């Protein structure tokens, strides 16, 4: 019998969960990092990208050959571009012009059309306007339940299994809020005592991939009652910890991941015996052109 070979879809998820050793050595707790950069398109957004397209296909809303439209800060766009290329869709992405060149180039490599906008809010508005003009189907990661469902079905169960049910705290930066909402829902169904900590930039900071949303743009998939604590993080502090992670742990990731690990270590310091899990949402090579990794702390 011929061997069944994996497709890209089979490679999404089941990412490693590793213990941070040196940056958390001063704590009496365990800090674990979920390495989502190991997904085939390089980020945690591979999970909702596959699920949003697969579920829309099952409902008969789209079929190969259609044009898909999405507003993105980068990682979702890259993931959707990969899935669209694999499944035979065309894709138009709207993204703030201050996104890194690596992200723009990755989208183009998969064949996506990129339209730059002045802000994330403008990108979301323009995507919906294009859909209204009949130019394609907006997947709408900000309000699409299939986004958080991907994490409820995969990320949450993986964390629970990998920690053997011992996880006490879960830390995630918040953008679309799909990751934190889906994971929180699953973990709290297993143990309501698990603490869920969400991160947003403080008022002076701008961190790629995460936002302080104005009320009118708050993602519709967000379930505030699942998040026990929302913390502000400072951009410079997150950047410094991101560099520390690369140099002292060998974990090469972006700024929002640096923020999540930084807060996870602080929570571990305050809670001896805890098992703290944080999301490392992508890889640091998407930020090399910013010069952030060459800076002195």
Give the percentage of residues in beta strands: 15-25%
Overall geometry comes to: globular
Q: How many DSSP H or I helices?
A: 8
**What integer value in Å does the Rg equal?**
18 Å
**Percent of residues in helices:** 25-40%
Summarize the structure.
InterPro entries: Cys_synth, Cys_Synth/Cystath_Beta-Synth, CysM, P-phosphate_BS, TrpB-like_PALP, TrpB-like_PALP_sf. The protein is an alpha/beta fold. The chain contains 8 helices and 10 strands.
Main attributes of the structure:
six-stranded mixed sheet, four-stranded parallel sheet, 8 helices, Cys_synth, transferase
Structure description:
- The protein is α/β, with parallel strands linked by helices and about 300 residues long.
- It has eight helices and ten strands.
- The strands form two sheets. It has a six-stranded mixed beta sheet with strand order 1-2-10-7-8-9.
- α2 links the parallel β3 and β4.
- α1 packs across α2, α2 packs parallel to α3 and α5 crosses α6.
Spell out the blueprint of helices and strands.
Blueprint: E1 17-19, E2 30-35, H1 46-58, E3 67-71, H2 75-87, E4 90-96, H3 101-109, E5 113-117, H4 120-132, E6 137-138, H5 145-162, E7 169-173, H6 178-190, E8 195-201, E9 229-233, H7 235-249, H8 255-270, E10 275-280
Parallel strand pairs: 2-10, 3-4, 3-6, 4-5, 7-8, 7-10, 8-9
Antiparallel strand pairs: 1-2
């Amino acid at each position: 019998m011929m061997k069944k070979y994996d497709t890209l879809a089979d490679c999404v998820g089941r990412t490693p969960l590793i213990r941070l050793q040196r940056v958390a050595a001063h704590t009496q707790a365990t800090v674990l990092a979920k390495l989502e950069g190991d997904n085939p398109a390089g980020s945690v957004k591979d999970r909702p990208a596959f699920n949003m397209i697969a579920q829309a296909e099952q409902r008969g809303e789209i079929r190969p050959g259609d044009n898909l439209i999405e507003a993105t800060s980068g990682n979702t766009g890259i993931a959707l571009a990969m899935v669209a290329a694999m499944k035979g869709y065309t894709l138009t992405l709207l993204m703030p012009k201050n996104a890194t060149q690596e992200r723009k180039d990755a989208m183009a490599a998969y064949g996506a059309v990129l339209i730059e906008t002045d802000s994330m809010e403008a990108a979301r508005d323009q995507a919906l306007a294009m859909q209204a003009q009949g130019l394609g189907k907006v997947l709408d990661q900000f309000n699409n339940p299939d986004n958080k469902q991907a994490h409820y079905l995969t990320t949450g169960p993986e964390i629970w299994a990998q920690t053997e049910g011992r996880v006490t705290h879960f830390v995630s930066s918040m953008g679309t809020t799909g990751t934190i909402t889906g994971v929180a829902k699953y973990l709290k169904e297993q143990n309501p005592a698990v603490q869920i900590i969400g991160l947003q930039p403080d008022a002076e900071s701008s961190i790629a991939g995460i936002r302080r949303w104005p009320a009118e743009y708050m993602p519709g998939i967000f379930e505030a009652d699942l998040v026990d604590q929302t913390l502000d993080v400072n951009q410079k502090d997150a950047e410094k910890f991101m560099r520390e992670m690369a140099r002292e742990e060998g974990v090469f990731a972006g700024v929002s991941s640096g923020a999540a690990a930084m807060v996870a270590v602080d929570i571990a310091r305050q809670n001896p015996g805890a098992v703290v899990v944080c999301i490392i949402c992508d890889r640091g090579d998407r930020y090399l052109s910013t010069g952030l990794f060459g800076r002195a702390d």
